[in-house]
Amino acid sequence: MLYPKMESLAARGIGSQAVSLETKDDGQEVDIGDIQLTAAHTLKGRVVLSDGKPIPPDMRVTISADRAWDSQMTEIGTDGCFEFHGLPAGVYEVHPSVKGYHAGGDGFSVEALVNRDIANLVIRMEPAQPQ
Question: Residue 57, Cβ neighbours under 10 Å: how many?
Fold first, then answer.
């Protein structure tokens, strides 16, 4: 897979899909042509704690691309808000990290389809049960 990193293009408001390529021999040169750049999207959201407590300081959220080994991380604001820029259209895993809480079906992430700008993704987190 060949792709530019999301963060490298975010400031320009552009993105690119990952390109699959295959070589048959070591050292083989492959002409992949031009990498097509497209408009990138912004995802804005908010983490909400189900017990109504405020978000502790220094908590983070990570977004990971489904088709490429690419991610971004940002701090969650005290109001729970976060945002990511430079996202090419695709499926992403959004992983909020708030100490003592879990989110999503697997307890750690939620899946988001980003095919336009998204301004209102809400991730509800539940207190973690003691083990």
Answer: 8
Using the Cα atoms of residue 95, residue 72, residue 47 and residue 83 in order, give the sign of their dihedral.
negative
* Amino acid occupying residue 83: E
In this prediction the pTM is 0.76
List the one residue out of 94, 70, 93, 90 whose CA is nearest residue 82. Answer: 94
> What b/e readout covers 63-101, taking b as 16+ CB neighbours within 10 angstroms?
bbbeebebbbeeebeeebebbbbbbbebebbbbbbbeeb
Q: Does domain 6-127 have CATH number 2.60.40.10?
A: yes
Residue with tokens 């809480």: 101
- The arithmetic mean of pLDDT across residues 70-93, rounded, is 91
